[in-house]
């Protein structure tokens, strides 16, 4: 094999954007992460392959469940329902929200954390991570409300309305209704039992993802905070601001 042919083959490996092939080349030692020179097949800009200190993942190489890779910014802005290369469906079956993709691992020991492609038995979760988090948060809020009502009843106190703020990726989802007029929102402590249930929910997702078949996408990394409403003559309804 000529040196020119070897050079061409090496260059092709460094620009490979089909994950199973790229993964094989990395595991076999044919190329290293430093050799990679990946172009986004949508915008043709370079895709990042290394972890960033500031956590900015704008154009990191992102793996789709079919195995093809595109830049993260093109995926998130496009709201893609199918892979732009093979046209495989990439939405969550139940909620129909677009799949967010999985950021390409930047370390050799993490390569096997990527689930199998759809053609190899992998599958996308029924709901996106926000819908999963909201569903679980609503279940927890219902459970906490029952606990709170029972506890207050034993002390001859009237039941109170509870709410929750779910924080996901910097934006907030209000559960349990808006703050009524002439009422104020008062934070309450989260019982340990509820903290454990939320922790188990997040740990369960990581465990399922590690089994190698389920495409969850990005980690949930959500936070929950509970509150109640109390009468206040000076309270301002947030909707009136």
From TrEMBL:
SUPFAM superfamilies: RING/U-box
GO molecular function, one term: zinc ion binding
Key words of the record: Metal-binding, Zinc, Zinc-finger
Spans traversing the lipid bilayer: none
InterPro entries per record: Znf_RING (IPR001841), Znf_RING/FYVE/PHD (IPR013083)
Family annotation (Gene3D superfamilies): Zinc/RING finger domain, C3HC4 (zinc finger)
Domain RING-type: 40-87
Name of the protein in its database record: RING-type domain-containing protein
């Amino acid at each position: 094999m000529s040196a020119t042919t070897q050079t061409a083959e090496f260059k092709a490996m460094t620009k490979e954007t089909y994950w199973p092939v790229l993964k094989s080349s990395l595991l076999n030692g044919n190329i290293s992460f430093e050799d990679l020179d990946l172009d986004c097949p949508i915008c043709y800009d370079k895709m990042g392959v290394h972890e960033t200190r500031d956590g900015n993942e704008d154009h990191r190489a992102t793996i789709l469940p079919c195995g093809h890779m595109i830049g993260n910014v093109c995926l998130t802005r496009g709201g893609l329902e199918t892979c732009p290369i093979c046209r495989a469906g990439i939405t969550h079956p139940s909620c129909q929200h677009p799949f967010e993709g999985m950021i390409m691992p930047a370390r050799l020991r993490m390569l096997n954390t990527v689930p199998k492609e759809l053609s190899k038995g992998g599958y996308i979760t029924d709901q996106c991570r926000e819908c999963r988090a909201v569903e679980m948060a609503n279940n927890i809020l219902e459970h906490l409300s029952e606990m709170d009502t029972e506890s207050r009843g034993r002390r001859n106190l009237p039941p109170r309305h509870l709410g929750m703020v779910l924080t996901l990726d910097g934006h907030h989802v209000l559960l349990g209704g808006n703050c009524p007029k002439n009422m104020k929102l008062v934070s309450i402590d989260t019982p340990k039992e509820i903290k454990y249930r939320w922790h188990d929910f997040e740990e369960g997702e990581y465990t399922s993802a590690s089994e190698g078949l389920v495409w969850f996408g990005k980690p949930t990394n959500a936070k929950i905070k509970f509150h109640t409403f109390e009468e206040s003559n000076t309270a301002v309804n947030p909707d009136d601001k």
